[in-house]
Every structure is written in structure tokens, then in C-alpha cells.
Amino acid sequence: MKESAPGAEDYDGIRVCDHPVPPWWKWLFVITIGYGMAFLLWHFITGGSTARDAYEAALAAQAEQRTAAYGELAADEATILGHIDDEAAMAGMAGLFKSKCAQCHRVDGGGSIGPNLTDDAWIRVTHVTDIARIIGEGVAVKGMPGWEGMLTPTQIVLLSSYVARLQRHPAFDGKKAEGEVVAPWPRAAPASPPEETPGP
Ligand code: HEC
What we know:
Layout (H helix, E strand, L loop, with lengths): L8 E3 L2 E3 L6 H23 L5 H18 L8 H6 L4 H14 L1 H4 L15 E2 L5 H10 L15 H13 L14 E2 L19
Antiparallel strand pairs: 1-2, 3-4
The structure holds heme C.
């Protein structure tokens, strides 16, 4: 039989060794436990910022950057409808809609607490400019907050374009239509894009 290594025992010819794990491994283990506990405490107990908060902040920053380039837009029909095909602005508005409106109107606009915005029936809208007015004023009696002061006038205009465009993709499982059917929006000339601004 071979000479046993120090700390090794022999049971019926089977050599059982007891090598200690290397210190770096032990410390890594201790650090992961410490990190895990700190993570738990930070995210779930003290309510520290999460990846979701960071994502939402990034979406809002993106929307802000996109809209800043437009200067102040007027909330008239030509401007609202003119930006309906403005893909860069609409991508920014998708983020804004998700962070500010989706909790009541659903991410796809299909409606939950608030009505379905993807059908052609409207409760309080007969003209596309009513969308901007409602976003600004809200509908206090029904629990829809007004966004005047929280969003810039330009954001409200572009968000109205985004809402007007939602009808292109009716939510298949959206809330049932409420209000009156409104004729399709008139066609408008595309608005000219803002000066190119360098990206971040
Ligand atoms: C706290 C919930 C809530 C949030 C957040 C909210 N809404 Fe609403 N919204 C409502 C409710 C409820 C109504 C229905 C009011 C009524 O019955 O007249 C409504 C109505 C509307 C309407 C009119 C719909 C119609 O059929 O006439 C528009 C447009 C609208 N919301 C857009 C938005 C946009 C854009 C945002 C985000 C900036 C937003 N809403 C955020 C609850 C909300």
C-alpha cells in the first residue's frame, strides 16, 4: 500500500482524503453570500432602485432627447397628424406611453382601467386635437390624471400623434369599445423632421 497523504484515512483500502478548499474559493463563497444579502436588503427591503427603474429612466431620457429637438410644437391637427409617421419621434413616444400611460391603458393601448385606445370608438374625442386636450387636462372624475406641467407641450403633441396612430394595430384582446365611433383621421402632410442632432 502506498504511503497515505497527511490527513488521509484508509477505510478498507479506500483512501479518503480531506484537502481543505483553497482560501480564494472560501473567500469567494463568503463574498457571494455577503453580496446576496446586501442585494436582497437593497432591492426588496430598502426599496433601492432596480434594473426596471433604470430602464424606465433610460426610456424617459430617450424620449426627452428626441422631443427636445423639435422646439415647441402646436397642438393643432396638422401638427399632430403630421407626426404620425415620424418613426424616430414615435419610438420615443412608445417609451413615454409605456412609462406614463400603460398602467391604465396597457402597453399596447388595449385598455384596462382606462379605455381601449386602439379602436375607432372614443368617449371624449371627436377631433384629433381632443386627444392632446385630454392628455393635458386629464379626466379627473374618471381617474385619468392630467399631464400638463408633467410633460412638455411638445411631448403632449407627439404623444397625441402616438395615440392617434395606435388604431393601426387594434389590440386583439383589448377592452370592448366604449363611446362613439369617430371617422378616420384626415390625412395630413408629414411634418418636416427636426435638425439632426448627434446621438449620445
Ligand atoms: C390612472 C389611470 C390612467 C392613466 C395613468 C392614464 N389614463 Fe388615459 N384615461 C383613463 C381613464 C379612466 C379614461 C376614461 C375617461 C372617461 O371615461 O371619460 C382615460 C381616457 C383617455 C383618453 C380618452 C379616451 C376616449 O375614449 O375618449 C385618452 C386619449 C387617454 N386617456 C390617453 C392617455 C395617455 C396618453 C396617458 C399617458 C400620458 C394616459 N391616458 C394615462 C385613465 C388613465
